[in-house]
């Protein structure tokens, strides 16, 4: 069992012919995952011309593909989770989670305690009628958040160092944005999972983990391109996301995530993928669209954003808007 433990889805018509009604045009196809990734990458990179030559693009993709085949080297480019997190996650896996024991473990890390208080006092958790003082008891905060709320919070905290300890100008600039998208993708996937008969916490973990390979990819861009022109072609972006996703899946397995999580990351967006991968793919799509809309790249009602989204997906899309 890994540190996250086990989790419980012709010809033209003659001009003299009688007029006939114009055929009803099919609705436009939704933007493909490749088109969305292209818009997302170009917004993230925000690189003016000139563009990197094909030789540089090929070198980056070759190195990234190599890391996906040797995930230990890729994992070395991102920090590991704090030592206390595995201990806390094991406690949270227990069916009879003990709030007092969890409080004792949490007290070893003041930053974690602050995170729990902050989360418990968010409007999403406080009852609408709550008008009293903020929650200031750690056990009360734990009980308010519940088992799943605590698991998601700790998973989020565990991943934060991945974006806070980046080197290179480009990686330092884009990593916080990638992290925000990861948080939104995790939330969206967890909300969509029950409707697909997938495990909500597995979906949350997959959302947080999916972009680890992308962070590594931007570090490679820093190392190879430096302050020179960046890659921009559609073929490069397609390869970048494909190899980054494969690397994320391999690192997830290396870090002993649940097998279903690593498999979902590797299969997200593939036809006939399992329900968890479907939840992840849609959650990732909604999060990217949300970030692009909030970044003034598209209007909320632009067909690029809304086409192909169900009523449920649009509801989740709205929930991803920042609270502040």
UniProtKB/TrEMBL annotation:
Location of the HDOD domain: 78-271
Task: Locate the region Disordered.
Answer: 1-28
Stretches of Low complexity bias are at 11-28
| One Pfam entry name | HDOD
Name assigned to this protein: HDOD domain-containing protein
The record lists the organism as Massilia suwonensis
């Amino acid at each position: 069992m890994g540190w996250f433990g086990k989790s419980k889805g012709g010809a033209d018509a003659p001009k003299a012919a009688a007029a006939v009604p114009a055929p009803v045009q099919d609705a436009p196809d939704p933007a493909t995952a490749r088109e969305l990734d292209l818009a997302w990458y170009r917004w993230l990179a925000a690189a003016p011309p000139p563009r990197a030559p094909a030789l540089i693009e090929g070198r980056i993709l070759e190195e990234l593909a190599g890391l996906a085949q040797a995930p230990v080297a890729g994992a070395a480019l991102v920090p590991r989770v704090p030592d206390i997190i595995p201990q806390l996650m094991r406690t949270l896996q227990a069916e009879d989670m003990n709030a007092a024991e969890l409080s004792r473990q949490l007290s070893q890390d003041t930053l974690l305690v602050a995170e729990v208080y902050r989360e418990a006092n968010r409007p999403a958790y406080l009852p609408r009628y709550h008008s009293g003082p903020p929650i200031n008891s750690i056990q009360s905060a734990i009980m308010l958040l519940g088992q799943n709320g605590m698991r998601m919070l700790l998973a989020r905290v565990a991943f934060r160092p991945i974006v806070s300890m980046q080197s290179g100008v480009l990686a330092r600039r884009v990593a916080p944005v990638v992290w925000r998208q990861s948080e939104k993708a995790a939330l969206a996937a967890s909300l969509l999972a029950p409707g697909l008969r997938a495990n909500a916490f597995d979906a949350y973990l997959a959302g947080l983990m999916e972009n680890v390979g992308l962070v590594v990819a931007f570090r490679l861009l820093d190392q190879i391109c430096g302050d020179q022109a960046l890659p921009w072609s559609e073929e490069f972006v397609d390869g970048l996301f494909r190899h980054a996703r494969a690397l994320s899946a391999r690192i997830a397995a290396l870090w002993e995530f649940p097998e279903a999580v690593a498999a979902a990351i590797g299969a997200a967006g593939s036809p006939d993928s399992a329900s968890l991968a479907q939840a992840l793919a849609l959650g990732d799509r909604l999060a990217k669209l949300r970030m692009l809309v909030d970044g003034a790249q598209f209007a909320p009602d632009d067909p690029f954003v809304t086409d192909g989204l169900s009523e449920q997906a649009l509801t989740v899309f709205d929930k991803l808007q920042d609270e502040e």
